[in-house]
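Contributing new records

If you add data, match the layout below exactly. Sequence lines come first and carry their own label; structure lines follow with theirs. Keep one chain per record. Anything else will be rejected by the validation script.
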Amino acid sequence: MEIPIKLTVNGEVVERRVEPRLLLVNFLRDVLGLTGTHVGCDTSSCGACTILMDGKAVKSCTLLAVQADGAELVTVEGLAKNGELHPIQEGFWQEHGLQCGFCTPGMIMAAYQLLEENPNPSEEEIRHALEGNYCRCTGYHNIVKSVQYAAKKLNR
């Protein structure tokens, strides 16, 4: 049995019929082909699957696609506009906030929500906002610098 859903993903209205048990992360990756959202731990511990749902950072491996019916979703692919990186994406590039890149989309989406709510966060506030996102490659120093870069660029 499939259930119809209608939602907005990166500014485009999407209508599909989905199995009730389909996870939102799998809907984004496998049905819509938005592979920037990563599947890491399947337990909501790592944050690699973080997206924005109605403006709030959520871990898409903890939600069913049917729970997103009517919602507005933004994935990491939806941040860049007209071929221009969003300042947070640019910050990760400029400040070397990534190594293997697996955690990066989730980090970027969590940082996006932080900067929407607090345009000038302290280092401590950045680290707190990213607590639910794990990186196994870095010591987080350059990730924090990346968010600080974005905050400065967005506040110009």
